[in-house]
Amino acid sequence: MNIKPLGDRVVIQKLEAETTTKSGILLTGTAKEQPQEAKVVAIGPGAMVEGKRVPMDVEVGNKVLYSKYAGTDVKVDGEEYIILKQDDILAIVE
Amino acid sequence: MNIKPLGDRVVIQKLEAETTTKSGILLTGTAKEQPQEAKVVAIGPGAMVEGKRVPMDVEVGNKVLYSKYAGTDVKVDGEEYIILKQDDILAIVE
Amino acid sequence: MNIKPLGDRVVIQKLEAETTTKSGILLTGTAKEQPQEAKVVAIGPGAMVEGKRVPMDVEVGNKVLYSKYAGTDVKVDGEEYIILKQDDILAIVE
Amino acid sequence: MNIKPLGDRVVIQKLEAETTTKSGILLTGTAKEQPQEAKVVAIGPGAMVEGKRVPMDVEVGNKVLYSKYAGTDVKVDGEEYIILKQDDILAIVE
Amino acid sequence: MNIKPLGDRVVIQKLEAETTTKSGILLTGTAKEQPQEAKVVAIGPGAMVEGKRVPMDVEVGNKVLYSKYAGTDVKVDGEEYIILKQDDILAIVE
Amino acid sequence: MNIKPLGDRVVIQKLEAETTTKSGILLTGTAKEQPQEAKVVAIGPGAMVEGKRVPMDVEVGNKVLYSKYAGTDVKVDGEEYIILKQDDILAIVE
Amino acid sequence: MNIKPLGDRVVIQKLEAETTTKSGILLTGTAKEQPQEAKVVAIGPGAMVEGKRVPMDVEVGNKVLYSKYAGTDVKVDGEEYIILKQDDILAIVE
Q1: Nearest C-alpha in E relative to F21
Q2: Distance from CA of D87 to the nearest CA of C (A)
Q3: Which distant-in-sequence residues (6+ apart) come within 8 Å of D49 by Cβ?
Q4: What pLDDT was estimated at residue B87?
Q5: Per-residue confidence at C2, pLDDT binned at 50, 70, 90?
Q6: Which residue of G has its CA nearest to F3?
Q7: What is its main location (chains A, B, C, D, E, F, G) (predicted)?
Q8: Which of the residues B27, D53, F28, F35 has the least number of beta carbons within 10 Å of its own beta carbon?
Q9: With 50 as the cut, is the pLDDT of residue D30 above it?
Q10: What residues in chain B have per-residue pLDDT under 50?
Q11: Are F43 and F5 in contact (CB under 8 A)?
Q12: CB neighbours (10 Å) of residue C26?
């Protein structure tokens, strides 16, 4: 299925939090930190400002940090996505 | 009956949530997820910005994802519709 | 009496909700749905944006759907009207 | 005394609510509806937008409908007035 | 001491409420109405809009009506003043 | 240490409230009024509006009145300062 | 790992609060003041205003004072960072 976000929206998918710490301890339940990293899976055409499209700053495939409570959770074909405005993406992580 | 939304408003109609899961189990009551998918049935002429119409990004017939609490529920001729601003439409699903 | 709304305001009058359902059952009390349909009885000259009047999108006589809690109820010569901004009108119904 | 409102402000004075109904019954206390009609007694020079005065839409002597909770009540020389922004005037009644 | 307000701010000083009514009765305590009249004692150079000063509408010496809860009370050299934005001044009284 | 505020921010330092009244009575505790006077110790380069710096209205050394709850208290090298936006400075006192 | 903040965002890292006072007393627990100083570790390309990038006022390596509750805490590779808008940085400390 193909999701085409509108305006300056971005569709991201959470990255699985690593379940082992650097020292190799397996984390469970609440000890596992809430991941804020996600992968960009689709981007909109950009916001419309005074008749012109503002080009997007992120690209499909980027790994990003995002504001924890931003956006809307959607489930399409059994997969969970978050659709948020590009402005709720804090940074690209490389 | 013919509904002509004003400005950048869009009239959508919820799509029936599938009542069987992929594995074929019939869902009932609260186990059935709240659908966020809808079909566009009418669009406005576009917002007026500094004397010019901004063309709409969605078209009649598009299947869209929308913000769950956005818009106003209306009932016309026994059919339920939601009228919302285009900005409350998150993405087009193809 | 003549009401001339200012700016982009519109004077509407609620349409009587049909008190019989399609199947002919007479509805009473709370079973009767809150009507959101109204008829436009007067329109303002349009909002003033940067020194120019923005022409109105609705006309006197239009049947419209409006946001349930928008506007101000006024009573002039015993008749009840609602004065609201055109932006609180969702759609024209034909 | 002379009150000169600033900007797009308007000074209005409530009109006495008619204390008899059309059928001639004298109303008392809470049965008497809260009047929303007033007479314009002074107008400001108009709002200043980008260095230019926007001409006012109401004139001294106009009978107007206004938003019930808008504006500030003032008492000058024993007379009660309401000073509000022109935007809180809903319509001119003729 | 000299107070020079910034931008479109105005320094006013409350006028003593008359303590006798028109009929000559001396008022005390809460029966005395909260005065909303004040005298302008200093004005700022005007707001800065797109690189230009917007000239002020009030002058030092004007008697004005102001929004009761607007502004900040300050005490300089034992004298009480209110510093508010010109927009919180409702009207000039002459 | 050198503090360089950003944009239209200003660093001020509260002036010690005089602890004796005009009549020479020494004040203690809550009887001592909350001072709202401060001295400007550093100013930013000015706000950026449409690509241009707006020059500041206050200068280092000015004695100013400021909004009591505005700004952020910071402690640098044991000294207490308040960093606020110039717009929260009400007036210059000379 | 490389963090590239978007727009006018800045990535900072809190500076360890000195745990000894000037007089050499070791502070513990709540007696230790909440540090508001941080070091800039990455900056965005600048905000986009009407199609142009506004250059940033801070640089990587700057020691800054920031609004205590601003921004989002993120943890990348076990290191804690704060990502905030440049406007939440109060001043550069030298």
Answers
A1: E78
A2: 8
A3: C50, C51
A4: 93
A5: confident
A6: G93
A7: cytoplasm
A8: F28
A9: no
A10: 30-33
A11: yes
A12: 9
Note whether D54 contacts C51, CB cutoff 8 Å. yes
Domain formed by D9-17+30-93, architecture: Roll (2.30)
Residue type at position F91: A
Q: Which residues pair with B79 in a beta bridge?
A: B76
The domains of chain C are located at: 9-17+26-93
Q: Report domain A9-16+28-93's class.
A: mainly beta
Domain F9-16+31-93, CATH number (from 2.30.33.40, 3.40.50.150, 1.10.150.110, 2.40.50.140):
2.30.33.40
List B residues 34-53 in contact with A (Cβ-Cβ < 8 A): 36, 49-50, 52
Whether C57 shows a pLDDT value over 80: the answer reads: yes
On chain B, the residues whose CB falls within 8 A of the CB of C67 are: 72
Share of chain G above pLDDT 90, in %: 50
Residue D75 neighbours by CB distance under 10 Å? 13
Indicate the residue type of F94: E
Nearest to G33 by CA among G6, G68, G9, G62: G68
Chain centroid to CA D57: how far? Answer: 13
- Cα–Cα distance between D82 and D37 in angstroms, integer? 12
Buried-exposed string D22-43: b where 16+ CB fall within 10 A, e elsewhere:
eeeeeeeeeeeeeebbbebbbb
User: Which letter does DSSP use for residue G46 in this model?
Assistant: -
What is the CATH architecture assignment of B9-16+33-93?
A: Roll (2.30)
Burial of A10 (0-12, 13-18, 19+ CB in 10 A): buried
Written as one letter, the residue type at E88 is D
Torsion over CA: G22, G23, G25, G28 (sign):
negative
Nearest to A40 by CA among A90, A20, A17, A18: A90
Q: Identify which has the larger pLDDT, C16 or G29.
A: C16
For residues B83 and B3, give the distance between their C-alpha atoms in angstroms, rounded to a whole number: 10
Report the residue of chain F nearest E51, measured CA to CA: F54
Using one digit for the tens of pLDDT, what is the confidence trace for F17-68?
A: 555 555 655 555 544 445 588 999 999 999 988 778 889 999 999 999 998 7
User: What's the fold here for domain E9-17+32-93?
Assistant: 10 Kd Chaperonin, Protein Cpn10; Chain O (2.30.33)
Contact check, Cβ <8 Å, G65/F83: yes
Handedness of CA E51, E55, E60, E65 (dihedral sign): negative
**How far is the C-alpha of G93 from the C-alpha of F11, rounded, in Å?**
12
CA distance readout (Å), G88 to A67, A86, F45, F57, G81: 16, 19, 16, 22, 15
Q: Distance, in angstroms, between B91 CA and closest chain C CA?
A: 22
Best CA proximity match to E22, nearest among D74, D1, D78, D73? D78
